[in-house]
Automatic annotation (TrEMBL):
Domain Helicase ATP-binding: 20-190
Gene3D superfamilies: P-loop containing nucleotide triphosphate hydrolases
Sequence ranges assigned to domain Helicase C-terminal in this UniProt record: 231-384
Top-level taxonomy: Bacteria, Pseudomonadati, Pseudomonadota, Alphaproteobacteria, Sphingomonadales
Name listed for the protein in its UniProt record: Ligase-associated DNA damage response DEXH box helicase
Length: 795
């Protein structure tokens, strides 16, 4: 190895040697190092050293990574050094794309190093020969651990590590990341039994400080929009002056629009491409190959390129719209140069005035080395059910020993014996309401107390259907006569109830019925209460939200802002007020025959969407005749026919006990969450031999079971899991609860004669089914300017 480093004129970096020392001492290790610092090589150096010093057959090291990262870069980071050192070490991948004959051979004669994903590892553990395959395992290396640990894939991986540790007690655990704010949280997640003292923290050498600029428009920072599309010509000019640029967008639909805008502005006909998760695999691979070969001058991309890309020729990263978090921004900046000692250049293109403040906050956070905190949560019960079936497929297990093993995984460390019993009972017979059906009786307890699979068909069923990622479906919006208007994301449709109105395809529509694949509507003259948005939305991180709040309350900082942004804040301060960081500002004012209430809560779009549904329902109860609401990351605006005199009563914490529960149960949110946990928990199979069920067939099955359980077994373990998902992931209820808990003591209510400057960016969204897309852009800007003139006029 020393010869290999010397031949390249390289020296092992300190953190790479520290990782080697930790391995020699038999310690688990978490490496936190900047992008371009050679993390992957650092994770594998101990493996290479051990296999060179003591060559062995059999599986030595597992490398687990997000699939997108796996596909791109392992060849150069690992296989090439192995080949160039001339050592006999086999390195292979195992994913869903691996041919079945190779998978079978890997179990019989595994390579020394196997690169895989959490899902494929879980499947491997479902085979009886896994007990011998992993018996000599020395290490597991988890790359990009921040992409796993706090979600359901992290729950699955944590359980898999507990199983592997039971099979191979001497296995070392290693995790790698560039963007970890809470190192101790990740050390606890990585450690057996959550014992952080067993995990050595290795930090990388600091890299060169990034060079980040905020691109300002030639005219003024826009009032509305969130895409930065106004700057297409300026962005193209940046692309022309750099070797290779990556242009990051926050949603796939925006990536498509930005690509079209850049193409129109591409007077030099430079080669540019596009890359996102909805493209076919072949198209993505073709673009990745063109980038690696230096054939593209720019690539428009989404989060599909956040992880694992190492194209050294990229010398500029451009972020369209606000980054939503400092960790995400750092991850994306790291794609530029991807070398520790070279400056990464990045340009932020804010979409509106609030986004300018957010971009400035992100830049300050990166300079201060401040990352976004990750929220660790209890492990999901549907994931646990899937894992227990996998273990039973491999061999019968003892209940008490398995409970101890499961509890050694941090997400499940507080699992009670009673809840574990419930999960086992669900796998045994489906639960009280379903026990009459043989197809739910997957596990049986023998006379000796061990749990085994009831029938071989359940083993095949598990291997066909295991997995954590459940594809989102689209619902067709149509009239009762069959005429289709288009499709909306199921996530949006799930928030609707009978009688709700929303704006789509240029008209106001009322919900008549929600079927498994159809949203049946009728045209209505009633105003659309609920807005719709295209694409998934990344929430504003609490870290950046706090910094933006700080800007509003600190006029001494405003000299750093463009003149028009500074003027916006100064007039807001004169005409209304600007909240202190701990305050919730609520403004009320009349406009054009309607009464508006705007709350500046800074809790992110997802939480605000949920809050809008709840507050408008409470307004209705109070006789305020609400017409609708709109929301962005920074504020929520509700409007109706009666003035809001007492906003505090609309934001009381008991809204989560009453309206929230009623809304989640009446809408399809809980049903949607149940479908996902039923699939992951193995209650409903997506695939049968030779055929994959349609989304409609899966939904039909889960809807039937959901209705039965709601009526006859409301405490069923999967309904508990569905509620946990509905609260945490679909409604961001954690941030919502924090906001409502603070509201009573921190609310500042200002009643105004007309719209305020701060309200313009959110109010201009009213009546728009999509924000900053297509021809809506120009109309949005015209309307924003008219509203702004009214708001900015002196009293």
């Amino acid at each position: 190895m020393e010869t290999w480093f010397d031949a390249r004129g390289w020296r092992p970096r300190r953190h790479q040697l520290d990782m080697l020392a930790a391995a020699r001492a038999g310690e688990h290790a978490l490496l936190v190092a900047a992008t371009g610092a050679g993390k992957t090589l650092a994770g594998f150096l101990p493996t290479l050293a051990e296999l060179i010093e003591s060559p062995t057959e059999g599986l030595h090291t597992l490398y687990v990574s997000p699939l997108k990262a796996l596909a791109v870069d392992i060849q150069r980071n690992l296989v090439t050094p192995v080949d160039e050192m001339g050592v006999d070490i086999r390195v292979e991948t195992r994913t869903g794309d691996t041919p079945s004959d190779r998978k079978a051979r890997q179990r019989a004669r595994p390579p020394q190093i196997l690169l895989t994903t959490p899902e494929s590892l879980s499947l491997l553990l479902s085979y009886p020969d896994s007990l011998t395959m992993f018996a000599g395992l020395r290490a597991i290396v988890i790359d990009e651990v921040h992409a796993f640990a706090t979600g359901k894939r992290g729950d699955l991986l944590s359980l898999c590590m507990a199983r592997l540790q039971a099979i191979a007690p001497g296995m070392r655990r290693v995790a790698l990341s560039a963007t970890v704010a809470d190192a101790d949280g990740y050390r606890a997640w990585l450690a057996p039994d959550g014992d952080i003292d067993t995990v050595t923290l290795v930090t990388g050498e600091p890299g060169a400080d990034p060079d980040i600029a905020i691109l300002l428009p030639e005219d003024r920072v826009p009032w509305a929009g969130h895409s930065g599309r106004y700057a297409a010509a300026q962005v193209m000019a940046e692309i022309e002056t750099h070797r290779t640029s990556i242009v990051f967008c926050n949603t796939r639909s925006l990536a498509e629009l930005i690509f079209q805008d850049l193409w129109k502005a591409n007077a030099m006909q430079l080669p540019i491409g596009i890359h996102h998760g909805s493209l076919e695999k072949e198209a993505r691979r073709k673009v990745e190959g063109a980038m690696a070969a230096g054939k593209l001058r720019a690539l428009v991309a989404t989060a599909s390129l956040d992880l694992g890309v190492d194209w050294g020729d990229v010398d500029c990263v451009i972020q369209m719209g606000a980054p939503k978090g400092s960790s995400r921004l750092l991850q994306r900046i790291g794609r530029s140069n991807h070398r520790l000692d070279e400056v990464s250049e990045a340009i932020l293109v804010p979409g509106n005035r609030f986004e300018y403040l957010e971009a400035r906050a992100a830049l300050d956070a990166v300079e201060a080395g401040e990352l976004d905190a990750d929220v660790f949560r209890m492990g999901a019960l549907d994931v646990l059910a899937q894992h227990l079936v996998a273990c039973a497929c491999a061999a019968p297990f003892d209940q008490a020993a398995m409970l101890d093993e499961v509890r050694s995984a941090l997400p499940y460390s507080a699992l009670t014996g009673e809840l574990f019993e419930q999960v086992l009972g669900f796998i045994r017979d489906g639960g009280y309401a379903l026990k009459a059906y043989d197809r739910f009786k997957r596990l049986t307890q023998d006379a000796d107390g061990k749990w085994r699979v009831s029938h071989p068909r359940f083993v095949a069923q598990h291997r066909l259907n295991a997995g954590i990622i459940v594809e989102a479906t689209m619902l067709k919006v149509r009239f009762r006569n069959g005429r289709a208007l288009g499709k909306v994301e199921e996530g949006f449709a799930a928030t609707l109830s009978h009688g709700d109105t929303f704006f789509f395809a240029g008209m106001s529509l009322e919900v008549e019925k929600i079927d498994t694949e159809d949203l049946i509507v009728r045209a209505t003259s009633r105003p659309a209460r609920i807005p719709t948005y295209g694409g998934s939305r990344m929430p504003l991180s609490t870290n950046l939200a706090d910094r933006v709040r700080g800007f509003l309350a600190t006029p001494s900082e405003w000299h750093r802002f463009p003149d028009d942004v500074r003027e916006w804040l100064e007039i807001q301060q004169r005409r209304s007020t600007l909240p202190r960081p701990e305050q919730l500002l609520v403004e009320t004012f009349p406009r054009e025959g309607r009464h508006y209430m705007v709350a500046y809560s800074f809790e992110g779009w997802n939480a605000h969407q949920s809050l809008g549904m709840l507050v408008t329902k409470r307004m209705e109860t109070q006789g305020l005749k609400p017409l609708g609401f709109v929301a962005n990351d920074y504020a929520i605006a509700c409007y109706g026919l009666e003035p809001v005199r007492d906003p505090a009563s609309l934001f009381s914490a008991d809204i989560l006990e009453h309206e929230f529960v009623e809304w989640v149960e009446r809408s399809h949110l809980l049903k949607r969450a149940f479908r996902e946990v039923a699939v992951i928990g193995g209650l409903v199979e997506r695939q049968v031999p030779g055929k994959r069920k349609t989304g409609r067939q899966v939904t039909f099955s889960t809807d039937l079971i959901y209705d039965v359980l709601r009526e006859y077994e409301p405490g069923h373990v999967l309904l508990q899991a569905a509620w946990a998902d509905a609260r945490a992931r679909m409604t961001d209820v954690g941030r919502l609860a924090g906001l409502l808990d603070r509201a009573a003591d921190t609310m500042v209510h200002v009643d105004l004669p007309r719209v305020s400057p701060l309200a313009v960016p959110v109010l201009v969204l009213i009546g728009r089914e999509k924000v900053a897309t297509g021809s809506a852009d120009d109309a949005l800007l015209v309307e924003a300017e008219a509203l702004a003139r009214e708001a900015m006029a002196p009293d």
